[in-house]
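User: Continuing from earlier, I have the next pair ready.

Assistant: Great, send them over.

User: Here they are, in order.

Assistant: Folding the first of the pair now:
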Amino acid sequence: MSLFERLGEKVERVKQEAEAAREETVDAEDRAEAEPDNKTDGESDGETAPDADLEYRCLECDAGFPDERETCPDCGAAAVVFDG
């Protein structure tokens, strides 16, 4: 078998693997779109509803907290604002 035949076979294998990976990705996306969304209105992945008691917010890390502070309790930044 010549060098070009072996190279051609390797190229064909890589091409087939790429096509198979693309099909798997498309199939996974189709399954994700077809799955029912069990969330109620106002819910989303990893997010909680804003708490009315969190009147102050850090401009650096976006953490919310209920009482006035000089610095953010999460990241220590001094960029704290009233958000109520």
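And the other member of the pair:
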Amino acid sequence: MGTAIITLLIAILAVFATVSTLKNKNYLGFLFALATVLVFGFFSIMTLIKSAYPEG
């Protein structure tokens, strides 16, 4: 559960990085930040869903 929370925090920080790179017109940084948001966001959300709602 701790890993999911940490990766969710990384995804939230990457959202701020994505906005910042767009303001600075740094397109390569934007691609990396967007990829980070997608990967870490997906991983954290799916981990929270699997561990927070056990099968019944």
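Worth noting for the second one:
Residues 1-52 form one domain. Helices lie at 2-23, 27-52.
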